[in-house]
Amino acid sequence: MTPAAPNLTRRRVLRGLLGGGLALGTLGGAGLAQAARFEVVRERATLPGLRAPLRVAFLTDLHYGLYVFGGSVRAWVDAANAERPDLILLGGDFLDIRPDGDPTPLLTELARLHAPLGVYGVWGNHDYGSFGLPDAHGRGAARPDWQGRRQELAAAFARAGVTILRDAGRAVRDDLWVGGVDDFWFGRPDAGAALAGAGERATLLLSHNPDLLPELPGPAGLVLCGHTHGGQIRLPLIGAPVVPSRYGQRYALGWVRGAYGTPAYVSRGLGTSGVPLRNLCAPEVTVLTLAG
To answer: What is the CA radius of gyration of the chain?
Structure first.
């Protein structure tokens, strides 16, 4: 599959809007302000197999390093901790830094996340760019040591208390299995491997990119995704002109369904990509209260 080129397309769309005089609400201070104001979105859902209620905080698309710095991450971490979740899940695109960049300020803040069942995450496409692979537009050459960089960062995240799941899973409670797949664009995501061992437990599956949803090899209890930013720039009546998905608006945001009728939630995420602006698409920390 040839990945979409969301960042470049967003820039072209914004230039077109500016030329037509329609970008007053998205450009400049208004768009910057909307990108800085996040919401705590609270949702309830059923998760078959749970024997006790579960509270999950889901944060995704932090994009630390380009437009996002430690202060923003600190506020998101504080908001997640204030919800007193049982479990914290992170949906990838943690990083927007050069391969030799320093993730320490991000990891310092993530180390403050607290949940009795742990903190788990998956890689996203921008993380792979930060490992040293070319970006989604094919720009740049792959660093020969990018796999080593990925391994080093996984270890650094683990020291900060974040377990990265790459086509793997964990039993975090007697009645709950959490699985995570590799990035859809740059990895080889294997949902079957991520859910292997779940048995009769309820299942939560993390996939950075919702384009995995139609390709699920079997049902999962609930899939949590990010990547789209909800389109990031949304306009009245028409919604998001650009969604970085081969399925367009289908998996842009909110509650959707994948193969086998599997329910999924696509978060609008927290950071920005391409341009440091949002419009009618506030960043979100998602809190899910789940019951069997």
So the answer is: 18
Strands (E), the chain: 39-46, 54-59, 87-90, 119-121, 162-164, 168-173, 176-180, 202-206, 222-225, 254-257, 263-266, 284-291
55 backbone dihedrals φ, ψ, rounded to 5°: -115, 120
Q: For residue 276, what are the contacts with CB-CB under 8 A and spacing of at least 6?
A: 31, 32, 35, 66, 67
Structure confidence by residue, pLDDT tens digits, 51-87: 999 999 999 999 999 999 999 999 999 999 999 999 9
Question: What band does 134 get if pLDDT is binned at 50, 70 and 90?
Answer: confident
Beta bridge partners of 290: 45, 54
What is the set of domains in the chain, with CATH numbers? 6-291 (3.60.21)
Cα dihedral sign, 156-160-165-169: positive
CA–CA separation, 45 and 256 (whole Å) = 13
- Residue 291 and residue 200: Cα distance in Å, rounded? 16
